[in-house]
Fold this protein.
Amino acid sequence: MRTRVACICSALLPLFGVVAAPEQAVPVAWVRFDDGKNAFPAMRVLWDREPSAPADDARFRQAEQNARQAAEAWFRCRRYVDGWLAHADPKTGLIPRNLRESQYWNGRDSAADNYPFMVLTAAMTDRELLEGRLTDMLKTEIRLTCRVDRLPDDFLFATQGWRREKVDPAAIIFDGAEYVKDGLLYIAEWIGPNAWSERMLGIIDDIWKNAAIETPSGIIPTLNFEVNGDLLQTCSRLYWFTGERKYLDWALRLGDYYLLGNHHPTRDMKELALGDHSCEVINGLSELYVACKYAAPEKKQAYEKPLHELYDRLLEIACDERGLIFLSVNPQTGTHGPRLTDNWGYNYDGIYTAYLTDGTTAYRDAIRKVLGNLPSFAGYFRDMDSLADSIEGAITLYNLEPIPGATNYIEREMRSMWSIQKPDGVIEGWHGDGNFARTSLMYALWKTQGCHIEPWRADVRLGAVRDGDKLCISLAADQPWTGKLIFDRARHKEIMHLPLDYPRINKFPEWFTVQSARRYAIAGLNHESNGAELAAGVPVTLQAGQELRLEVSQH
């Protein structure tokens, strides 16, 4: 079996620009995470291979292990992209909603949940694919699917036309809001201003252009709870991203609707769902609250009591003894359904943001409690989508409150999620497959502390750990490699212009970030430069089979 796996590995690696080293030069430790559903047995040789000799520095030993875990995450994401591109419509190049019966592109699914994570995967692993086929897909989508101004509608491949005969205003507003909040906003937060952010701004502007529902605070586009949550999150961030006041004013209309009127989520609603497609308002209001603190203090004061009322009530009635959140509650009676929500982290994002804004220690304590209790939650979810959302919540909050128990949960559930992927790269064959890539990218960036390499290659392994203000990096490759080591920056500040880095859906957490004007030394490369140069990429050359250890420190 060992010889057979090594042969498969030798055959597979050239597909990713790698020529395998002779078998005798590849010491192997057998699979530690074998779940019986291993889609890539050849690659396990790389991912589970222990160093031939123990590292004499525990920091670099951990960094090397992180490197192998990150390598698996990158590879799986890249295979996911290949798997879905193989099913693209041959005439338009657009991907279908799913691979079963929905052979059409739509805004809320294809565009919102799948395509953006192909873009983000390519942004980290394949610049040519990003600037070529995936950029072309955006241009095609804009050309073919805009039906009311810049708002997208379903495009049916069989007829190369609209899936719905008549325009459904509510549907296209829903589609546009989902496309922006779940996908385009993610791209903007990672890459910055680009063609995708232009698409994002166009959609949001035209959603509000076509708004028609009168409220005491002004016209809003919809009464749909999910869509209004999307718009709260998006417009609150776009105010900072663009500097244009109109986005904040639009978000304030929705804030007034839910916090100052008779639509308060816990005071006025008889049933409050806290899962996907329903929890968006819970954290969307917190994003607006942050914006008000810095840009509209009179509104912050008006919102403070009703916002805290919302979060206090949720902590009172919506949590089990471990702090995990129920899928639905009756805010009036305090009763709840039996199921727990995989979106527990999304709800806690809002609560923790209120802590960062007002310093309410009970809110922070609630997050620390649930993170510590996560190991007891392992195995609760079985489907990929639920696993992805729950892991994302854990990673996002662990980034702010590094409670050890959370890491055990993340590691176990990542293996469960990865076990679902098929050899062709497809996961479950529906638009939610993008969530698999989103969470895997987030996991990889945790393991590299935000660093990535260019060009990416399957055998190149990059991992990192923090040691106070220092960053310890392990880099290795099975074959010679020359490229750039790219460091992360404070994206919330430099790209989004946010006043603080609060937890939010649709962003990759920041780990080790470099500041443009600061000087950094990299021991192991004999290199010194400022943060802007590190963010642009430091030249690195790797010799075959040798580990390069780097220690980054501020000057």
User: Anything to note?
Assistant: The two ends are 51 Å apart (CA to CA). The first strand starts at residue 104 and ends at 105. The longest helix spans residues 58-85.
